[in-house]
Amino acid sequence: MGTTWMWGGVLAVLAGAAACGSDRDVGQPAADAPAVAAAPVAPDTQAAHNDDDDDDHGGHEHDAPHGGALVELGNEFAHLEIVLDAGLGQLTVYVLDGEASTGVRLRTSSLRPTIQLPSSAAPFELALSAVANALTGETAEESSVYIGQDDRLKGVSRFTGKVPSVTVRGQTFSDVAISYPEDSHDH
Fold first, then answer.
1. What's the whole-model pTM score?
2. In angstroms, rounded to a whole number, what is the distance separating the alpha carbons of residues 160 and 178?
3. Residue 14's pLDDT is what?
4. What one-character-per-residue DSSP string does 35-81 give?
């Protein structure tokens, strides 16, 4: 019953508005129109959220959509999400937009981060290959997902590293520090 009443009221208001032809601008109240209180507006949750967040992440944080560690590129320009499958020794890097919600394709077939394990003195380079996906139209030359495997990553729970260079939407970022999980960098 409430929905029928609501739609009836909306239609009556619209019909009344259409019947009242006048020379005034659309959207402007008539001079003799009664004042109407504005509906309450929900507070800006993003602004409230920003005030309480850690300043190390540009004022606010995003959730990693694949459960990995997020690395910010520029001032919220884009993100890399680092996901480790320690059982397989497989590393996946997702390239995401500034909100860390949508994949952004790179025009490269590979990424080559250097990985530094806590138990190893020397870093090693890991070749990550672009993943083609027929459903999204991504190819081995233009993808937002890069995967590589190395047995040295098996059983690992944390590491740091660096992506020498990555170009996202025409902007190049050099010596991008990465870590897994996110808190493994010393700030």
1. 0.67
2. 6
3. 38
4. P-PPPP----HHHHHHHHS-GGGTT-----TTSSEEEEETTTTEEEE
